[in-house]
Amino acid sequence: MIPGKRFLNFLGAWSVFAFFIALSYLLFPFHYADTHSYFKLSMVRFWQTVGGVFLFIIIWDAWKGREKPIISIKRVIPHNLSLGVWHDVELQFRHNYSFPATIEVFDNYPEMSEVDLFPQTIKLLPSKVTKFNYRIRPTERGNATFKTVNLLVNSPLKFWQMKMDAGESSSVKVFPNFAAVSHFRLLATDHRTSQLGIKLKQRRGEGLEFHQLREYRDSDEIRQIDWKSSARRRKLISKEYQDECDQQIIFMLDCGRRMRSKDDELSHFDHALNAILLLSYVALKQGDAIGLMSFSGEKRWLSPKKNVSSINRVINAVYDLKTSTQAADYCSAARDILKLQRKRSLVIILSNIHDENTGDLSLALSLLKNRHLVLLANLREMLLDKFLDEPVENFSQAIRYTGIFDYLETRKKVKQNFIKKGILCFDTTPKQLPIELVNQYLSIKRSGRL
């Protein structure tokens, strides 16, 4: 139990009054025969009586306040939260108050989150369920725990406040932000995927797998015509092809220290997870199987599967995955992939590569290339592009511009060397990674390289 604002205000006012009474005694000493002094003495005794009454009221209020009311709280939260997205949380208060009461509320939300509207004062009405909403925004992935709700309940006359804990602890999972996947799903339904920047290129030739027969169209090529079916039906019939299905896509996700870099609120690692989710959805829609392996930190392996639940399988496998302080060990990861994945697959490596670790990476890519088709997605810091676009106005800016330009030229040479060795490679910023990765995948599918 702690003093309330009303008690502190009363104590302050009484202290000021006592000070002036004491000051009057010192400055104006009086005698009992003095009428004016007798009046002053009467006023002193009157206020002493008033003070005694208030003291009794305060003690009574404290005693009544110890009879804690029954307050139960139910927290309504989404089953899963998305990283960096605002979500609504509702607190439902049930109580046995027979009169309106005011309480202060503070919910013990997860530390790795941002909230608004706290602490908050709420008025509880008799015989009614009171509801209160606030918003929460997770800033890290993983398991988030809500602890009990802290309450400050006023005593009947509000001279005291009682601390209470109500409600139950609860845990939720904070997943990567799959808003891009949902957006893509909607655009794909309306055939407007170009709004995301996804480019559907024409197939090379007539495709890889026969799909169906249909009537001839003016835009069809002569080699698409099925002459036997045309002769049998006495009208032109064309063959329709589709991209080859049942291919396997393996993500190699770098969990090393390079992926801890941040250009905005999300790290390179979180951007890579968002890209994996988007491409997983696209590849599953194409009839391909999705697998994943993390390396240079906590090692996790998901064998390739293409059923409908595979996207949820990927999300549940990576939602609590963290980066480590280790350097990326590409060779070890490549040997693990060769042991675990025998069938030829498209292996996509997502990493942040600098020129000092290209030797180990080159050996790893050579090992993987013997069995798999390899695509290297190299993340580039967005600040580099920002600094290059800024005008150069002094010597320090010129030095910085030269250093960044030289560094990017080195990255280009590394990329060109990989391409010469038959490794597919692209360099992109974290924000552009999801769309660039999908475009690379669709280009590979339609080229028939896998």
Task: Tell me what the structure shows.
The structure is a single chain. The protein has 450 residues and is an alpha/beta fold. The chain has four domains: 2-65; 71-175, Immunoglobulins (Immunoglobulin-like), CATH 2.60.40; 209-242, no CATH class; 248-447, Rossmann fold (3-Layer(aba) Sandwich). Helices cover 38% and strands 26% of the residues. The protein is built from eleven helices and 20 strands. The chain has a six-stranded mixed β-sheet with strand order 17-16-15-18-19-20, sandwiched between helices. A five-stranded antiparallel β-sheet has the order 1-11-10-5-7. Strands 2-4-8-6 form a four-stranded antiparallel β-sheet, with no helix packed on it. α5 packs antiparallel against α6 (310-318) and α5 runs parallel beside α11 (433-447).
Proportion in helices = 25-40%
Low-confidence stretches: 186-192, 202-207
Gyration radius, to the nearest Å? 35 Å
The counted number of beta strands is 20
For the largest beta-sheet, the strand count, sense and barrel status come to: 6 strands, mixed
Based on Cα principal axes, name the global outline: elongated
Judging by the overall fold, what is the CATH architecture of the largest domain? 3-Layer(aba) Sandwich
Strand order of the largest sheet: 17-16-15-18-19-20
Count of structural domains: 4
* Helix vs. strand class: alpha/beta
- What is the CATH topology descriptor of the largest domain? Rossmann fold
The total of helices stands at 11
Average pLDDT works out at 80
